[in-house]
Write a structure and sequence with these properties.
2 domains; flat; 74 residues
């Protein structure tokens, strides 16, 4: 079953979130790290027109992806 997980947090990389607490060479064995594609996203601001558009575009991209995943007419 395909699934999409979205992790949102501050400094996930520096906190070694995806390394499951493993250090050094052992971190290469962390399943979370091997199975995830990290997509860093800069903080959004909605106080400007450009910022609001960027935020809405990101939400629309997620929505479009989820709608394709959830289709039942395949």
């Amino acid at each position: 079953m395909p699934a999409t997980f979205i992790y949102v947090g501050v400094h996930l990389k520096s906190k070694r979130f995806f390394d499951e607490g493993l250090l050094g060479e052992d971190a290469a064995y962390a399943q979370t790290s091997r199975r995830a594609t990290r997509v860093p996203v800069s903080p959004f601001t909605i106080s400007t027109t450009d910022g609001m558009k960027a935020w809405c575009d990101l939400l629309a991209a997620f929505e479009n992806h989820l709608l394709r995943v959830c289709r039942t007419d395949r």
